[in-house]
Specification:
It is a single chain. It contains four helices and no strands. By secondary structure, it is mainly alpha-helical. The longest helix is centred in the middle third of the chain and has 22 residues, at 36-57.
Length: 78
């Protein structure tokens, strides 16, 4: 086998490897996203975060701070 033929074979093998396992494989959609269990865990985490955020925003200290902020904004002199 000549050197040129070996380089062509090597180049073809490299291209085939990149198509199968390289960047172009990811672009073709072989990584299909999250599984059902990952969606479930993500949804539970989002709901827990929303519940904590709701409790914080509806607490007395935050509610009075927001009310005073709105009152000061409405009473501002220009």
């Amino acid at each position: 086998m000549s050197r040129e033929m070996m380089e062509q074979a090597s180049s073809a093998l490299r291209r085939a490897w990149q198509v199968r396992f390289g960047r172009s494989a990811r672009c073709r959609g072989l990584d299909r996203g999250m599984t059902t269990s990952e969606y479930a865990v993500g949804t539970i985490a989002a709901c827990a975060f929303a519940a904590v955020l709701y409790k914080v925003v509806t607490s007395g200290a935050v509610l009075s701070a927001l009310q005073s902020l709105v009152k000061d904004a409405l009473d501002a002199k220009f």
